[in-house]
Amino acid sequence: MNANTPTDVVFSFTGLAARADEHKDGFGIAFFEDRGLRHFIDRDGARSSPVADMVRRYPIRSEVVIAHIRKATVGAVALQNCHPFVRELWGRYWVFAHNGDLKVGAGGFQPRLHGAFRPVGDTDSELAFCWLMQELAKAHACVPGIDELTHTLRELLPLPAKHGTFNMLLSNGQALWAHGSTRLFSVERQHPFTAALLADEDLSVDFAKHTTPSDRVAIVATEPLTANETWLPFAPGELRVFRHGRQQLPRRDVAASHPPH
Known about the structure:
By secondary structure, the protein is α+β, with helices and mostly antiparallel strands. The protein has one domain: Glutamine Phosphoribosylpyrophosphate, subunit 1, domain 1, CATH 3.60.20. Helices cover 21% and strands 31% of the residues. The strands form three sheets. Strands 3-2-4-1-12-9-13 form a seven-stranded antiparallel sheet, covered by helices on one side. Strands 5-6-7-8-14-15 form a six-stranded antiparallel sheet, with helices on one face. α1 packs antiparallel against α2 and α3 crosses α4 (146-156). It is globular, with a radius of gyration of 18 Å.
């Protein structure tokens, strides 16, 4: 989730957790608060985890949230293999979650890690994250702007993606980057807000009762979480950037959509 005001994700997280019968090999969620971060992971699935139950009951408010339910493909079912993963770069926390699997080792994704970023667990996902952080640090001597970061990510992300399925979410608290490899969708909510109905649970919420006319919220998910909203699918290889609750268009697209008078 990416929003322009601190927002809770209890509704969306309830819908995500309903899918944890299949994706039962751990869960995690991270909430940015200014430069701080609340990070909860558990090797138990989001259906049964008492940590997940706490998240559903305690509406933490944040402008950027990344949550993940795991179906193990590479790496054991273990706490250190639970997404989202967290690293520090340029004095900010970075959070990463991946859905899919990469072929690693000989003939596959086998990056050389020679900096400060090393995997703790044994997943392809954490390996890709550490490589990504390493390459971002190499590409920029100091903190770049969002547009610069987006440009660099557009160059980097196809490299791991060519070795498998690479649907991923990445944030430093300032923006949310989402890369679609096979299946990824997004929806944006704004005034006038309406009621939304979860696709996997008999639960609805009328956002008009809990929002102001200036609020904006963007949600990204592997599968649409609601049954009555228009979710936009990602094209294969597409990178979207969300800031302040809306998708940020590349500069050339912004210029095209606002021609000079």
